[in-house]
Amino acid sequence: MRPLTGGKRKDLGAKASDPDEAMNSLVRLLATRQRSVQETRKRLLEKGYSDESSSNAIDRALACGLLDDRRFAEDLIKDRLSSGWGKRRIEQELYHFGIAKDTVEGYPEAFISEEEQLEQALRILERYHTRSKNPQQSAYRHLVARGYSSDTAAAAVKTLKT
After folding, report:
1. Which residues, in sequence order, are CB contacts of 87 under 8 Å at separation 6+?
2. 127: left (phi over 0), alpha (psi -120 to 50) or beta
3. Residue 108 Cα distances to 37, 63, 111, 141, angstroms
4. What does residue 65 show for φ and ψ, rounded to 5 degrees?
5. Per-residue pLDDT tens over the stretch 44-101
6. In the 3-class helix/strand/coil scheme, how is 92-109 assigned residue by residue?
7. Exposed/middle/buried for 68, CB within 10 Å: 0-12, 13-18, 19+?
8. Choosing a second label site near 122 at 20 to 30 A (CA), which of 45, 102, 143, 149?
């Protein structure tokens, strides 16, 4: 029977304190997709690297531009907006990755305006079908669940209704 280790943490032995091994692992992680600093640190620790070697590898990746929370956040925002997400849900996703929305330069105005959010909400509602007894309320809940503000959701439902 395997001992419980409290998670996915692997035992790397001497490699756990080797900063070069941690850096190699970090590069492999970033080869699949961009990651935030917080997510990268968490993954390295889960792989069994020490705090010191993980921090060293992250500092090196930041210095050479492999890791960049601002770039990661901007790409994430653009991707989520194109998928029809509202601002609130995007902000929750940023928080999940350890990025404060205040650190993203120009957010949200530089990415999407209130008018564009309303237009996007209307496009979503045009494709939305429900069998609910109260379709307006159902449409409103659908938009709010996608991260649209209550004002934007109400305006979209009202516009589509008329």
Report:
1. 108, 112, 117, 147, 148, 149
2. alpha
3. 21, 27, 5, 22
4. 85, 5
5. 999 999 999 999 999 999 999 999 999 999 999 999 999 999 999 999 999 999 999 9
6. HHHHHCCCCHHHCCCCCC
7. middle
8. 102
